[in-house]
């Protein structure tokens, strides 16, 4: 990790540091788009051909059977089931409080407006299955979908040797997900978005993935025949702010817990002094040697950096410009600084709040905006699986009360039919 002194960097250098490693969008889109179009035209047959090409899947039964769900539950060790159930309990407890409330107001006498929420009927959950198995992502998506009351929840994940991981299937059972397909990559996104004779399309797709999955999600979201998506997303990232007396081993472990996600993960440390930065980097070197995913973490660290700051105001200003997916505050009395945080996906306060707890079991959602999108997007919530519908009901007296405003504005915009729709009712 390269080390820079924050207040000695030019404005252009600071802007450059906030940019994430570039994704080769033109090349990626040129690979993904033909896959989408072929599946759009030929359906399941094309999707299965790509599943065989990219994932080696040769099975005839693409949908997980009831027997496979039962077998997964039976085979899974008790301690893993207990961990999944505890995490699910915490996630459900936190997310149940997010259910949006209906509200109503009488804007003018006889003019009553309200807003109500409805669940999105058909949603698709994409669970990555490349270098890591992620039952936690199943919980993070499946539980809010359940709370929202979605009519149909469909999951997709690539199969290994024709089988979905037992922990992932058990997590799906905990979420009440029964429709699960052994399909990954862009081909899974295409099948969810466009549907086919055997599988009905969904209205919105959720879930992270590699650059091909991300490209597929973006492309189907701008296709009139496709569907909506949760958010644009890039590689995982963390930004850690450390003051003058952090536990260097804790800070290093937080950096590495994100670096091991993938070679394109982005890891940033803001340290209050060069000596703190040096101590943390020494710990990083020691700890990375013990990781099974050492090669991945080292590659990610090569694209990452350390900034030495003079004041916490400087550190928070950079963090807000960077807009990290995860922000960890290894500082004294971290809660006192919450009002300084404007852009972040999820925040972890203090030495005993590692990002790992949010990834798995504290209750908050780990499906978060990356690539700087925390400036404009929130993480996945119950409301992500719902949409608001506004209602208005006017009495004749209410219409008469608001008529002058409406007709004047209609005349201003030269929309005579709009004016007439009001005037004809008051004759």
How would you portray this structure in words?
There is one protein chain. α2 (25-42) packs across α3 and α3 packs antiparallel against α8 (185-194). With 427 residues, this protein is of the alpha/beta class. It has helices at 11-18, 25-42, 44-55, 66-75, 78-96, 135-148, 166-175, 185-194, 211-221, 248-259, 274-288, 294-302, 312-322, 355-360, 396-412, 416-423; strands spanning 2-5, 103-108, 111-119, 122-126, 152-157, 179-182, 204-206, 228-229, 237-242, 266-271, 305-308, 326-330, 346-349, 386-394. It contains 16 helices and 14 strands. Helix content is 44%, strand content 17%. The chain folds into three domains: 2-21 and 234-363, Nitrogenase molybdenum iron protein domain (Rossmann fold, 3-Layer(aba) Sandwich), CATH 3.40.50.1980; 25-99 and 116-229, 3-Layer(aba) Sandwich (Rossmann fold), CATH 3.40.50.1980; 395-423, no CATH class. The mean pLDDT is 94.
For this structure, the CATH topology of the largest domain is Rossmann fold
> Sheet with the most strands?
6 strands, parallel
Helix content: 40-55%
The end-to-end span amounts to 75 Å
Q: What is the top-level CATH class of the largest domain?
A: Alpha Beta
Rg, alpha carbons: 25 Å
In total, the number of strands is: 14
Looking at the overall shape, the CATH architecture of the largest domain is 3-Layer(aba) Sandwich
How many distinct domains? 3
- The ordered H/E elements are EHHHHHEEEHEHEHEHEEHEHHEHEEHEHH
Count of alpha and pi helical runs: 16
User: Uncertain regions: pLDDT < 50 for 5+ in a row?
Assistant: none
β-sheet strand percentage:
15-25%
Averaged pLDDT: 94
* Widest beta sheet: strand line-up: 1-11-10-9-12-13
Shape summary: globular
What is the CATH homologous superfamily assignment of the largest domain? Nitrogenase molybdenum iron protein domain
